[in-house]
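Subject: Interface between my chains keeps coming out wrong

I've been trying for a while to get a sensible model of this assembly. When I model each chain on its own everything looks fine, but I need the whole thing in one frame so I can look at the contacts. Pasting all components below, labels as-is. Any help appreciated, I'm running out of ideas.
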Amino acid sequence: MSEENIKDSEVDIVIGALQADLSSFLNEWRPIISRFHLIIVQDPDLKDELNIPEGFDLDVYTKSDIDRIVGSSGSAFFSGYSCRYFGYLISRKKYIISIDDDCFPAKDNMGNSIDAVAQHITNLTTPATPFFFNTLYDPFREGADFVRGYPFSLRSGVTSAISCGLWLNLADYDAPTQALKSQLRNSRYVDAVITVPARALMPVSGINIAFDREAVGPTLFPALKLAQEGNFRWETMEDIWSGMCAKVVCDHLGLGVKSGLPYVWRKERGSAIDSLRKEWEGVKLMEEVVPFFQSVRLPQTATTAEDCVVEIAKTVKEQLGRVDPVFSRAAEAMVEWVKLWKIGSGSPLVFR
Amino acid sequence: MSEENIKDSEVDIVIGALQADLSSFLNEWRPIISRFHLIIVQDPDLKDELNIPEGFDLDVYTKSDIDRIVGSSGSAFFSGYSCRYFGYLISRKKYIISIDDDCFPAKDNMGNSIDAVAQHITNLTTPATPFFFNTLYDPFREGADFVRGYPFSLRSGVTSAISCGLWLNLADYDAPTQALKSQLRNSRYVDAVITVPARALMPVSGINIAFDREAVGPTLFPALKLAQEGNFRWETMEDIWSGMCAKVVCDHLGLGVKSGLPYVWRKERGSAIDSLRKEWEGVKLMEEVVPFFQSVRLPQTATTAEDCVVEIAKTVKEQLGRVDPVFSRAAEAMVEWVKLWKIGSGSPLVFR
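Reply #2:
Try treating it as a single job with all components included. I did that and got this:
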């Protein structure tokens, strides 16, 4: 497997538009993304018309498209940062790459511009190694290999399903951390890609992510909505929650999750201190969420991502539902998502 | 916890001397290690007298010391790369740092000389985070923190017990890899320290390692001896085997294992092709070793590293003993090691 095998036509770049003026965003990304098809989904709460520069192959979806395709509940489902998930649903491509609209191409330690799309595709098209940790990181990178002691039977690895990229400048901290350390910026470029080991959980950030839509598309959804959720990343939990589901599903199905390169440059936006009041809800929920996902086990009969999500939703309802109603609503949204996903993949006409 | 709390007198630097002339090795390391106490253990198979430059605070142990202290079987136990373990046994310090005598101080990406000792001490004296993966790597490094979604209850971390450093130039590959890719050198300096997640196994290399001797000293021993073991790293398995034990014990006791910085510069030595015939034994054994350690579970009654090693030895004998006699011998050596360790810590007079 190598990235040469991937055609540009197998990739959709999905952008959730939380701001109307996408001109500087798209112009800065132009050299990297212009050869791919773009799906732009406008936040249904955003009233202004989008400003999109010429020269891209793209489809734009707005509130009326969402309502038409998934019904009138769609706008609530796909509001705010969750609008991008509509793009995941509507895409028919094997791979999806999604980057927040406040991120720009970053530079590596040598000052070279990073092609985040190429790196994500490399991550997804080279094997992952979740069953044994390679101390020299990704053994499939040029100049690297498996170290002494790595079992030969595990060296072919498994299919990579998710590639989680990182952030320079404003990192993906929560509001309390950002408020407490308002000067904290990430300037450390770590030149590595790691397979997150099987059974190790992680906070998957939706800021800069790519995945194999055919393999794990149904596991990435907007289900956990905080009561006071706003339009700053540190006010959301939807990506963290679905990322936990996605990791558990990948472990169950024998698929790999990678973290590390590529970096994007994340711009400043909003005040963490203003968000503190809202964020605590999400922070508190994680104390329940992590032990739950550490203990959840999927039955052998769950052989697809859809099956797995339905099974997890059932257990969420049973075990977490009594802790907080936000979890019952998440479980219902997960079941709803799988229904939408199945309709979408069964009847392409409905969705295009 | 921070490195300021560690006195130099709490650290022993243990060097296994596989070559008689240590002058260039010690002189290159002088600025970094001269303020610490050194334990130099001469490979009992090495007949020449050691050449050691002036100006170090050190104790040297030779074949006759080993035989006197652990009995006449000692020389076989501690031959070749295993000689360093005699230093682990004889030390009375809390922390041990051990680096192969063919390694030299490396430089980082900015061309600055790396203080491997300081980095190991930082790794050991800042907490580890084995129960949830932090995508921005070590959250205790300057300029880093826990990312959004990281549960606050896990942010205090656990005590770090083992710090595994890496290698620039000649990396720690096995003989087949080194022979097949004879030009392969590691030039990628990855500026990161990672806690290897709980329940994830890894190949611990003894080339550049540090550990909390009081917490996990009994888990690092020379037990798995290959029939054709020689004096090249790629011909040995003793560190990989004891590293698997150590990781399982750390997971059981709630201690952390870190991997990454510091790097050392590893010099060329020997021919991998000549070693190929020997190495295959070790390579084949890993196919049994990894599934074994992935399945081994320790009883709640095992509350110290000594207890854990004895329990693992019992299971090795039962389950792996029938696969290959090398494993039965390893199990016996592990029990023997714990006995030596207990004698040593109970009666310091015997050992000094």
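Reply #3:
Confirming on my end. The first helix of chain A runs from residue 23 to 33.
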